[in-house]
Amino acid sequence: MVCCALLAFASPPHCAEAAKARHFKWEISNMFWSPDCEEKVVIGINGQFPGPTIRARAGDTIHVELKNALHTEGVVIHWHGIRQIGTPWADGTASISQCPINPGESFTYRFTVDKAGTFFYHGHFGMQRAAGLYGSLIVDVAEGEEEPFKYDGELNLLLSDWYHEAVYAQAAGLERKDDHFQWVGEPQTVLINGRGQFGCTLGDVGDFQREIQRDAKAAVCEDEKKTNCSMILRSECGPFCRDTQCGPVVFDVQPGKTYRLRIASTTSLSALNVQVEGHDVTVVEADGNLVEPFDVSNLDIYSGESYSVLLKTLKEGESPYWISVGVIGREPKTLPALAVLRYVAGSTAQSSSSSLPTTAPPETPTWNDVERSRDFAKKLKARAGAEKPMPTNRRIDMLNIQDMVDGQIKWAINHVSLELPATPYLGAYLYNIQDQVFNTTVLPDTFKSGYDIDKPPQEQPEGVPTNATVVSSQVYTFKHGEVVDVVLQNADMRKDDTSESHPWHLHGHDFWVLGYGKGAYSVDATDPPLNVEDPPLRNTVVLFPHGWTAIRFVADNPGVWAFHCHIEPHLHMGMGVVLAEGMEDGKKLEELRKKVPKEAMMCGKTADDAALAARPITPATPPPPSP
Asked: Which residues cross the membrane (predicted)?
């Protein structure tokens, strides 16, 4: 019997009699693809886009032998939602947990999937996620165990947004100075399972669609060039061509059944709303954690989040129905993506325009209705019987601001914009060369007093520095076992009365979501009070505009972990922090160093492993007590 060790506050250990080692061999390369009927270059895996789906059971060990066939850049893969307990080097974060895998080289990820849930994986080097490097990772319960809910089948929605501009041009625009700064703009298309349609819509073009695309480009996709795509250019092959890469996604279901609909968002920018025409759904899982079931007619999902919902098909009904995925949180300029829920009694029919619904697709809720989105988030509660959070012994306030640093627009936390070093933080700790790799100055646990969150950073009141933001590689350090509250505080951007949503993702952990609020957080005036009775466990949480979000986690997974906004251009502009846990324990560091594959640290100042191996381990200085 194989039992996987879990964090103290997580769900009960999965003791699987048949835990397996699952082996995968991947080659990552650039390739031509037409995700939305426009041929572009994507980053694919084994010639596939999106990448292959990994399916395993809780307790299984995953082995992914990955070869980098990109010619000019490194690559890493982050296993989003997998906590990497005991394997922090396999987290797949360049400059934090490992070195990028160089062109032509290979690296093998080995890790245990410790619990069941809906997860995904994606590139975590540069902006490779936005270039198409992602795929689904589904973990079923361990052999012999059962979910607390029943269903007859599964459907999988992997959501993303797609830009026609190459990620290298996007990154270059974000790095331009002063008035030359170039924002990435809104995506051209929303994709469902890697498929969408640019410049046309599968459903009726009504006032809702015209309001989004005022240039009237929104037209119903036509059945043109329905020939074998191998005979014509990919870019000329529309959504109904026989071998199209951008055809409608059709889910076949049977009447009177219950389906588990797994939904995950790996978008670069967009927050999305999902609804199934004519059907309500029951939310049962969020980020791999069970929640108290509740019914909704539509569901908001931000980048980095995942859900499972139960969909009960009608006993009788006119098939087919639309599944609509539209943009919220930002004024949309991208048409909703559409998939089809089709009732079948027997064999599956060939997808064509004749199989599409004749009804108008559901309209996406108002994009800037923050209260509606916040109300949905507040409905999420831990499933009955879940362990309650333990008392905290440290609080960190993280002010999210947009500021100007040396002519560049940056995102910053407590006036520090993250800059990653050339040597992985984990390697720096393992080989006791922290002062050679990153800025070891202790980060503050709060922001400057008197900061007015309702004013841009350049318009702060007298006494608050207006040019205080710096670019730095500093980290937060935690003793093993610390229980930490983090209050994410939103504020005005560089424009007055302008604030955006930020989905924050924590690597290596789940955390309890204690609450959301408007305005400035106050420990004495929190209304309602923080939820410590049945808060949900998540790995990604939304910080809403002009408000705050409070979370709690236990620092009991030794390693160095990223905590960042999951919006790709925001992270590129410095919106993240690095957490070092348990690095004060010399014995644990020595054990960790023996386990880390040497190829994970073959860059920067840890490249000379022979010289470094002779260095004695000196524990990191424990962090000072919180004020």
From this structure: none
User: What are 408-427's pLDDT values in tens digits?
Assistant: 999 999 999 999 999 999 99
Count of CB atoms situated within 10 Å of the CB of 153: 15
Closest CA to 420 of 573, 267, 541, 559: 573
In which region does residue 339 sit, left (phi positive, over 0), alpha (psi from -120 to 50) or beta (all else)? Answer: beta
Mean pLDDT, the chain, as a whole number?
A: 90
Map tokens 């620092």 to a residue: 555
Q: Tell me the backbone φ, ψ of residue 90, rounded to 5 degrees.
A: -95, 10
Structure tokens given for 272: 């999305």
Please compute Rg for the chain using Cα positions: 24
Q: Which of 105, 167, 169 is nearest to 130 (CA)?
A: 167
DSSP string, 39-102: -EEEEEETTBSSPPPEEEETT-EEEEEEEE--SS--B-EEEET---TT-GGGS--BTTTBPPBP
State the burial class of residue 12 (Cβ atoms within 10 Å of its Cβ: 0-12, 13-18, 19+). exposed
Asked whether the bond before 528 is cis by omega within 30 degrees of 0, the reply is: yes
What single string gives the DSSP state of each residue in 508-563?
T--EEEEEEEESS--TTS-SSPP--SSPPEESEEEE-TTEEEEEEEEE-S-EEEEE
Does the pTM of the predicted model rise above 0.90? yes
pLDDT in tens, 179-190: 899 999 999 999
Work out the end-to-end distance of the chain between its first and last CA atoms, rounded to an integer number of angstroms: 46
Q: Confirm if 193 and 325 have CB atoms less than 8 A apart.
A: no
The residues facing 111 across adjacent strands are: 62
Residue for token pair 């002779």: 614
Q: DSSP alpha helices (H): ranges in 358-424?
A: 370-378
Mean pLDDT of 106-135: 98
Domains, the chain, ordered by start: 21-146 (2.60.40.420), 162-207+243-347+355-368 (2.60.40.420), 394-591+593-600 (2.60.40.420)
Mean per-residue pLDDT for 335-342? 96
Closest C-alpha among 417, 413, 467, 411 to residue 439: 417
Say how far apart CA 402 and CA 73 lie, in whole Å: 29
Question: Is residue 19 pLDDT above 90, yes or no?
Answer: no
Cα distance between residue 588 and residue 620, in whole Å? 12
- The label of the residue with tokens 């689904």 reads 136
270 alpha carbon, distance to own chain's centre: 11
